[in-house]
Design a protein that fits this description.
- This protein is rod-shaped.
- The strands form 3 sheets. An 8-stranded mixed beta barrel has the order 12-13-15-16-17-18-19-20, surrounded by 4 helices.
- Helix 2 runs antiparallel to helix 4, helix 2 packs antiparallel against helix 5 and helix 8 runs parallel beside helix 10.
- It is 45% helix and 24% strand.
- With 488 residues, the protein is an alpha+beta fold.
- One of its GO terms (cellular component) is plasma membrane.
Length: 488
């Protein structure tokens, strides 16, 4: 993943454009979502308000009916004055009519009808008449039955309904549906309500609210989107400076350590009989695609950014968790460490645990000069108490070999491969190896010969008293699973 990011970062123009689009896209989606949710909430609020407005008008109409019920309704002449008075003092209503057996016989405006006029839909609780008898304009009628053959009807002028809708609406998005008739603030809607969605039904009167959920981007939102585009470009420039300033190599290696992608491999160490007595733990980075990264690629990064301690801790813990390694014999397992590792209390604690199962050997290379020798000696002495031993790796290749041996007590010296390679043909290499063996013998330090690839090398070293060998002749570095099978 990080390699892909680094590839993108190499093209700064592409990076700025990509990040700008990403930032603008995220903010734009957030803005449009917020705008739509606000639009939807506003629409529902207007729908609720429209319902309450119509219910209030119908409640006034019902109040008019209730007042009319107290009158002597069989006789139009006796009740006409009071009916007109009710219309005059009751908000929103236009007329009160009396119907008997399907015929209107009294109306608050016309008075007594003679002959009586036949009325349709007179039994419906609420309906809209598109062509009123008075002025041929639409009127909404609320009806209540007062006896087996008698009804009171209150007419609400379309004007009152439209005025109420106009106060809460402005774009035709809220619709009142009564029976088969639908209203918005512009009047009766003659087309089907295909673009409208049912929202809510009144629980008091037989009408419903429909909403037009169509969402359009207004000029203000477009302005905001343009402003966001400029802001996104600026943020992209800042992001580019931040991303290009990140140390991706360090991040990638740290991530590999944390997720145990750097695995412990073991190269066997054998005795003079060819039996495996242990092994050196070597780090190999296995990527998600199965690629094995050799140590010469990532170890310099680990050393540069002081990541040896966390990597060593990770390797130690992975080796501890592999318990099947300790079922056959007590092994010698060595780990490459630095001075920082020696001084780390966590590594000390993990070495204490691992020493219960095997002989732990910590290898220092003489190329890594100890800065605080006294502190290192103290830590090494405390770790020796629970069985940890120490080896000097790559012996003879550094500039302070003898001084190292004078200051630090080691249990093993490892003869470097550069000397072993020429032991069969080079007198100088032979002389150096003889001196190393003689010095180790005097200091009571055991020798391990590294880089063994030919049987002739083994025979020569055996003849000089070397009893531990490591190299491709006995096995290349391998996973713990494969190493465990060789112990059976």
């Amino acid at each position: 993943m990080t390699s892909c990011i680094r590839k993108i970062l190499s093209d700064k123009k592409k990076l700025v454009c990509t990040v700008s689009l990403l930032i603008w896209g995220v903010f734009s989606i957030a803005l449009l979502s917020a705008t739509y949710l606000s639009h939807l909430a506003s629409l529902k609020e207007r729908g609720n308000l429209a319902r309450s407005q119509v219910e209030e008008m119908l409640a006034n109409a019902q109040a008019g009916i209730n007042k009319a019920l107290r009158l002597e309704l069989d006789d139009c002449n006796k009740s006409l004055y009071e009916l007109r008075n009710i219309v005059a003092v009751t908000p929103d209503i236009r007329t009160i009519s009396l119907v008997r057996n399907g015929y209107m016989y009294c109306n608050s405006i016309i008075g007594k009808l003679s002959p009586e006029r036949k009325i349709g839909n007179y039994q419906e609780r609420l309906y809209v008449r598109h062509n009123s008898a008075l002025d041929h304009s639409p009127v909404m009628i609320l009806t209540q039955k007062i006896s087996k053959l008698q009804w009171v009807r209150v007419g609400i002028s379309e004007y009152y309904l439209l005025r109420a809708l106009q106060r809460i609406n402005g774009d035709g998005a809220v619709v009142i549906k009564v029976g088969n008739t639908s209203y918005n603030e512009f009047g009766i809607i003659k087309s089907k309500l295909d673009k409208y969605e049912f929202y809510k039904k009144s629980v008091i009167y037989p009408f419903s609210i429909y909403l037009d959920n169509k969402f359009t981007i207004d000029n203000k939102t477009i302005t905001y989107l343009l402003v966001l585009a400029f802001i996104s470009f600026g943020l992209a420039l800042l992001a580019m400076r931040f991303l290009t300033g990140l140390n991706w190599a360090k991040f990638e290696v740290e991530n590999a350590i944390i997720n145990n992608k750097i695995k412990p491999y073991v190269q066997p160490i054998v005795d003079d009989n060819g039996d495996i007595v242990g092994g050196e733990i070597l780090a190999r980075w296995i990527k998600d695609n199965g690629e094995i990264v050799p140590p010469n690629v990532f170890i310099p990064t680990i050393e540069q950014y002081d990541l040896m301690v966390p990597m060593t801790l990770s390797l130690l813990n992975q080796v501890i968790e592999y318990q099947s390694l300790y079922h056959y014999k007590r092994l010698h397992l060595s780990f490459n460490v630095t001075e920082a590792c020696l001084n780390d209390p966590k590594i000390k604690q993990v070495c204490r645990i691992l020493s219960r199962y095997c002989d732990v050997v910590l290898e220092l290379t003489e190329n890594q000069q100890l800065v605080q020798t006294d502190t290192a000696q103290t830590m090494m002495a405390s770790m020796r108490k629970f069985g940890v031993k120490f080896a000097l790796d790559d012996y003879g290749t550094g500039y302070s070999t003898l001084d190292y041996l004078r200051k630090i007590k080691f249990d093993y010296l490892k003869i470097d491969k550069s000397f072993v390679d020429h032991i069969t043909s080079d007198d100088v290499s032979n002389a150096i190896i003889d001196n190393i063996i003689a010095l180790a013998d005097r200091l009571n330090i055991r020798i391990i010969a590294e880089g063994i690839e030919q049987p002739e090398q083994v025979e020569i070293l055996k003849s000089r008293g070397v009893i531990y060998f490591q190299g491709y002749l006995y096995g290349k570095p391998m996973l713990l699973d494969e190493f465990a099978t060789k112990l059976v």
